[in-house]
């Protein structure tokens, strides 16, 4: 579709495909905060499927739903949203944006980023530019080292050509004109310069490699930090859409690929470009005809390269996706080795890995074949490029229209120029790799947290602990999980929630910690809606012990200390004592300094739970939640955990979620949840007297216990 211009609303349409359009928005150019604010405001608007606002290029890219919006409407919404950001916000963001580089003018770095963003992949350039800003680094130093190194690499073959011309002909006339007539003196000058040049070349080669490496590593670190920070800003709902393997792949795969690209491609491309410019200029001075002949195959080479890039890009995406699949299977197998073995499913797993590996091998073979075909063709084309000017120069030398000096310089420059136009495959490979990595990272960084931080601070010490669920309704998707439930938990009371599997008990706790927000109704703490509280304050106020509490591959002591990192050793040991850990810690050869393995796998379920309880005791939150913590332990451990829980619950609001009713009989109130609704509430005795759902469950469990003890 033809691009049209519309200056009236500050947007200039650059390209439009069905459902996808890109506009220039000069007001956003080099205004990262403003761009971010506009992007935040556009994401989630009706009809907007994906939005990317790039300050580096000053462009807005939108994928929109054509059934809801026309192109013109999408443009109008963008302009209106920008206008609706509010003059004060825009001014504040503008001030902050422009204050960053100093004087508010467009600096050379930004200009270069903008140019690069329009020439190369905008996602990639923007990511690198953002990382540069964060790491406070630029590519200037490595670029300067590269330039010096390449200049010397061009000069050195030139010096050899000049030495040969002095040896084979009567000397170098410009030097003779300066009074240096002796061939030996001229040779000494060129030889000395050559030696000096070579020495400097190797010094700069070292500097070039190390400065590009330092730059790439700094960008990588900044990207890693940015991604890590962003992941932590996302809510559980958004995070649960990605597997942990996918999340790890952003760090191990994508960010590492961008570093690999920066270490190799820019220095290589810059090196080659300078070689072509410097060598081409020298050839032009010596013989423009020879240069023209050398350039004849270039259009063909460009065509070949374009075709190759398109095919390589497709192959590349396919291979990358297949590697991801393969890694996912590998990682799932490594994590679930015990399950695979217990189902004797090794052969099945090996077969599925083999099938994926075979598919990957075939795709890689297609990609490699395409690469080698391109290499062979481009080398052949270049050889033709070397032959033609060489033959011409020989004729010119024989006919006397080219001097020996000119001939030797010419022949030393032809390979410099033409070899620089080849060997781009690896650089292109790295570029494609980084381009797709940047695309994935951009999609991740564009995800918006659905949970927004509140503005009210609440000191943990000042919290009373009254919790109220008021007509709360919630569903993970369209299916409701909690249906209009209401419950008041007075401060310092212990309330239990019991009910069948899937009735929504854990969901209540997730809402309480604002991992998700309620769809309807509200939850209050001391009368304040949770959505108004600072998330950090809220989560500091809640201590959760659940079956899947994460334990780190560190010592027992360090795992408990995680509850309050500034606690003293005495406080940690007191928390461990309150959690009745002494007996099992004493059996460990290194006591509290025993490393417990990944996720605490060297310990039993009951031992892990006691560490988790000690961690929460150390945290000392005003609200304590126990989610299914005793379901997987024996009676003795359950009794130990129960004693610890009673100690914690004594002076704080406590919610116990349990299947085993024996662990909740002392609760001030027991609430029975069925299909997202509270169906019974009361004390243990009151509920037994009522002879409803709870009494039925109690009888079932009591009979089961009796049977167990008789069999035992
Ligand atoms: N992240 C999620 N995404 C989608 N659905 C979910 C998610 N977590 C839970 N559910 C669904 O919500 C319902 C309630 O789950 P919840 O974990 O709250 O139940 P529960 O009462 O704690 O069950 P259990 O006693 O087995 O732990 C279930 O149907 C479950 O499948």
Describe this protein's structure:
- The chain has three domains: 115 residues, Gyrase A, domain 2 (2-Layer Sandwich); 235 residues, ABC transporter transmembrane region fold, CATH 1.20.1560; 249 residues, P-loop containing nucleotide triphosphate hydrolases (Rossmann fold).
- It is of the alpha/beta class and 712 residues long.
- The chain is built from 25 helices and 15 strands.
- The protein is elongated, with a radius of gyration of 35 Å.
- The N terminus is likely disordered.
- The longest helix has 54 residues.
- Helix 24 packs across helix 25.
- Adenosine-5'-triphosphate binds next to helix 17.
List the helices and strands and how they pair.
Elements: E1 5-6, E2 11-17, E3 20-24, H1 32-42, E4 48-54, E5 59-64, H2 71-84, H3 87-99, H4 108-119, H5 122-135, H6 140-168, H7 173-177, H8 183-233, H9 236-239, H10 244-286, H11 288-295, H12 298-335, H13 337-342, H14 346-399, H15 404-420, H16 425-445, E6 467-474, E7 482-489, E8 494-499, H17 505-512, E9 520-525, E10 528-529, H18 535-541, E11 542-546, H19 556-561, H20 569-578, H21 582-587, H22 605-619, E12 623-627, H23 635-649, E13 653-657, E14 669-674, E15 677-682, H24 684-690, H25 693-711
Parallel strand pairs: 8-13, 8-14, 11-12, 12-13
Antiparallel strand pairs: 1-2, 2-3, 3-5, 4-5, 6-7, 6-9, 9-10, 14-15
Helix pairs in contact: 4-5, 5-8, 6-8, 6-10, 6-15, 8-10, 10-11, 10-15, 10-16, 11-14, 12-14, 12-16, 14-15, 20-22, 22-23, 24-25
Bound molecules: adenosine-5'-triphosphate (ATP).
Organism: Acanthopleuribacter pedis
Keywords: ATP-binding, Membrane, Nucleotide-binding, Transmembrane, Transmembrane helix, Transport
Domain ABC transporter: 467-700
């Amino acid at each position: 579709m033809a691009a049209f211009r519309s200056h009236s609303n500050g947007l200039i349409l650059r390209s439009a495909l069905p459902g996808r359009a890109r506009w220039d928005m000069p007001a956003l150019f080099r205004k990262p905060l403003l761009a971010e604010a506009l992007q935040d405001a556009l994401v989630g608007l009706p009809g907007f499927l994906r939005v990317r606002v790039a300050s580096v290029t000053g462009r807005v890219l939108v994928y929109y739903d054509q059934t809801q919006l026309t192109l013109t409407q999408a443009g109008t919404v963008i302009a209106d949203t920008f206008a609706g950001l509010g003059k004060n916000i825009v001014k504040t963001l503008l001030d902050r944006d422009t204050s960053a580089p100093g004087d508010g003018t467009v600096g050379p770095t930004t200009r270069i980023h903008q140019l690069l963003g329009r020439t190369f992949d905008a996602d990639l350039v923007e990511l690198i530019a953002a990382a540069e800003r964060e790491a406070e680094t630029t590519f200037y130093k490595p670029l300067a080292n590269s330039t010096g190194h390449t200049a010397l690499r061009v000069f050195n073959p030139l010096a050899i050509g000049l030495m040969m011309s002095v040896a084979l002909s009567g000397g170098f006339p410009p030097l003779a004109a300066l009074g240096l007539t002796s061939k030996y003196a001229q040779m000494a000058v060129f030889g000395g310069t050559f030696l000096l040049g070579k020495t400097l070349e190797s010094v700069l080669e070292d500097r070039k490699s190390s400065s590009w490496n330092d730059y790439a590593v700094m960008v990588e670190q900044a990207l890693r930090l940015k991604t890590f920070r962003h992941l932590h800003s996302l809510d559980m709902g958004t995070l649960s859409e990605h597997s942990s393997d996918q999340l790890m792949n952003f760090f191990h795969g994508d960010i590492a690929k961008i570093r690999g690209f920066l270490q190799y491609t820019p220095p290589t491309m810059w090196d080659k470009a300078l070689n072509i410019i410097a060598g081409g200029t020298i050839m032009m001075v010596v013989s423009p005809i020879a240069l023209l002949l050398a350039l004849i195959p270039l259009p063909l080479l460009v065509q070949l390269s374009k075709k190759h890039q398109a095919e390589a890009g497709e192959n590349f995406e396919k291979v990358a996706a297949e590697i991801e699949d393969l890694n996912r299977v590998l990682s799932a197998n490594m994590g679930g080795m015990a399950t695979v073995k217990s189902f004797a499913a090794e052969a099945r797993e090996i077969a599925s890995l083999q099938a994926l590996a075979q598919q990957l091998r075939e795709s890689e073979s297609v990609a490699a074949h395409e690469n080698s075909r391109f290499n062979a063709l481009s080398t052949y084309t270049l050889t033709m490029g070397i032959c033609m000017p060489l033959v011409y120069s020989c004729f010119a030398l024989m006919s006397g229209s080219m001097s020996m000096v000119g001939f030797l310089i010419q022949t030393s420059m032809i390979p410099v120029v033409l070899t620089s136009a080849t060997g781009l495959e690896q650089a292109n490979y790295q570029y494609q790799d980084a381009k797709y990595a940047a695309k994935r990272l951009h999609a991740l960084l564009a995800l918006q947290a659905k949970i927004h931080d509140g503005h009210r601070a609440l000191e943990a010490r000042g919290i009373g602990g009254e919790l109220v669920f008021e007509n709360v309704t919630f569903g993970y998707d369209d299916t409701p999980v909690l249906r209009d439930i209401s419950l008041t938990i007075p401060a310092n009371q212990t309330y239990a929630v019991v009910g069948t599997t899937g009735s929504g008990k854990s969901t209540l706790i997730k809402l309480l910690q604002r991992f998700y927000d309620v769809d309807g109704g509200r939850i209050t703490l001391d009368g304040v809606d949770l959505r108004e509280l600072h998330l950090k304050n809220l989560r500091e106020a809640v201590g959760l012990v659940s079956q899947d509490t994460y334990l780190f591959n560190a010592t027992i002591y360090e795992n408990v200390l995680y509850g309050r990192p500034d606690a003293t050793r005495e406080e940690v040991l007191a928390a461990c004592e309150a959690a009745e850990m002494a007996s099992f810690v004493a059996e460990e050869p290194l006591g509290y300094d025993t490393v417990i393995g990944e996720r605490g796998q060297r310990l039993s379920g009951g031992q892990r739970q006691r560490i988790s309880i000690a961690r929460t005791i150390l945290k000392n939150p005003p609200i304590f939640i126990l989610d299914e913590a005793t379901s997987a332990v024996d009676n003795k451990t359950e009794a130990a955990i129960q004693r610890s829980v009673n100690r914690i619950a004594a002076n704080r609001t406590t919610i116990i979620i349990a299947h085993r009713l024996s662990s909740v009989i002392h609760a001030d109130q027991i609430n029975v949840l069925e299909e997202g609704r509270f169906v019974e509430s009361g004390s243990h005795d009151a509920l037994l007297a009522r002879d409803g759902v709870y009494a039925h469950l109690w009888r079932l469990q009591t009979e089961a216990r009796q049977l167990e003890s008789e069999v035992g």
